[in-house]
Amino acid sequence: MSQFSKSIKAYEEAKEVIPGGVDSPVRAFKSVGGTPPFIERGEGAYLFDIDGNRYIDFVQSWGPLIFGHADQAIEEAVCSAAKKGLSFGAPTTIETDLAQQIVSLFDSIDKVRFVSSGTEAVMSAIRLARGFTGRDDIVKFVGCYHGHSDSLLVEAGSGMATFGAPSSPGVPADLSRHTLLATYNDLESLKQCFENSSEIACVIIEPIAGNMGLVPSDKEFLEGVQSLCREHGALLIFDEVMSGFRAGLRGASGIYGIDADIITFGKVIGGGMPVGAFGARSEIMERLSPDGPIYQAGTLSGNPIAMHAGYASLEKILREGDALYKRLELLALRLTQGLADAAKRHGIPLQTDVRGSMFGFFFNEKPVKNFRDAMASDSKRFAQFHRKMLERGVYLACSQYETGFISSVMDEAMIDDVIAKADAVLDEIK
Ligand SMILES: *Cc1c(COP(=O)(O)O)cnc(C)c1O
Question: Whole-prediction pTM value?
Answer without folding.
Answer: 0.96
